[in-house]
Amino acid sequence: MEQVEADGLRKKYGDTVALDGVSLSVEEGEVFGLVGPNGAGKTTLVRCLTGTTRPTDGDPSLLGKSPEEVDKSRVSVLPQEFSPPERLTPEELVGYYASLYPREETRDPAEVVEEMGLSSSHDTRYADLSGGQKSRLKVAISLVNDPDVLFLDEPTTGIDPEGREDVWGVVERLADEGTTVFLTTHYMREVERLADRVALLSDGTVVEVGATDDVIREHAGEPRLVVRTVGSAEEAAESLGAMAEDGTVVFENVAVDGIGEALDALDDADIEYDEVRWREPGLEDAYLRLTGGRNDG
Amino acid sequence: MVSLRRVRGEARAEWGSFLRKPAAVFFTFVFPAILVALFAAVVGAGGGFFEEPQGYYFAGYLAFVVLLTPLSRLSSTVARGRDSRRFEKLATTPLTRVEWLAAHVAVNGVLIFGASVLITVLLLTVGGASLSFTPASAVVTVAAVVVAVAGFCGLGVLIGAAVSSEDGAIAVSNGVGFPMLFLADTFVAPDALGAGAPVVEALPLTYFSRAVRAATFAREEAVTEPLVILAVFSAALFAAGAYALPWQD
User: Fold this and answer.
1) A222-280: CATH, from 3.40.190, 3.30.70, 3.30.565, 3.30.460
2) Which residues of B touch A52 (CB under 8 A)?
3) Beta strands in A1-113 (DSSP E)
4) B198 touches chain A (CB under 8 A)
């Protein structure tokens, strides 16, 4: 069953078009990534889908109902840049948000705090927690009603790599448990690691949607080996039948096990080099190709 | 349907936050006490605008906390909550706007009741005021405080929802609150206000001060009429405030 659905969503703020005919659907138990730079319309789409703003046109649907009619106990949202009351401790905050749901549908706050690895900071006020702890606590707050569908709007923006890793671990565990997760981010690596399917959003329009691996395979291009030569890159490239680009020799479509062979060819041709770079193309490459390089996020 | 569990949860979180903010405790309890002490000294000296006995100004002292505490607290809470996306989060939970505002009325009601008791004690002991407290006048005073707090919490929300920053919300609260405080038949009689006199009847605080003064000082004046008008004002402000909460953008 489709848990989240957008059908031709359009949202205008004055003359500014934030969403322009967005259609997508998210299946039960799926981790769905919505990717785009700042200003692409990700947060507006989440707001339309969760009922905190009304679309100008089109129909959002959540668990088969309009966002205004859905049972709010079955859904949870972590808004972008959300900050809870700062003087309460983790357990008090989780308890506070738990109290907003029917008792029988909530989890034990102490258990949620422990599960998020925050037990050691149980008497520390939110304001005094580290960035990673704050992020984990915000996710903990979002889990207290044990939601069927969880919206995470840029949950790792502005936090350190350790904190980001913590949040990723939580999302992976939720996915294993079958929770439907709608994740928005401008970190392509986040979606590559977490999302089963992805939608690429640019200027309020979905430019591609599909399984993450398929989108990368179809649109990201081939892996490239880039070698910075000591001498002329143009001459080296010509002698090797490769391409010269910005003072480097570029070997197109070189798999990881073909790197040695390419370097042997350089040695055989007595070409000296001082830097070698190989990169497997990812979602960012797919995004840049599909949008003509419009990733300013 | 209003859920007491949700109202209690919201109120408990607000109460916990308040107690851990020393500046908020100071401005809620100590500041009014300083004001009473200063005014009591001025009124005790007699002359000028303040020719009435101390007991006459009791309603004005209560009006100070009943008006300014909810205005500044609610307007800043709403502005801060919008900036920190708390309302966006709350809007996706079962909590309703009416429940949120009811919880904050409850917390502010308790705070203001405490401050009012402190003011009363100070005025009777330090200021030497003469107040005619009976069980009936106490009930009227408490009822007026509760009803007024509900309305002024609604007005605070309206200010917080209309102003884009927390600092701006507090500034507008003071800009609205202080003129209203002195124009509402509290410290200055309407006939001494000159051009400002017609405004007096349009201010909800006027009916609070008249109800409290009638109950505690000028026993011959009617209590019911100002109390009913205050209740109508407060119901409208509460409803408007609940509607204005930034649940949706």
Assistant:
1) 3.30.70
2) 88, 91-92, 247-249
3) 2-13, 16-27, 31-35, 57-62, 75-78
4) no
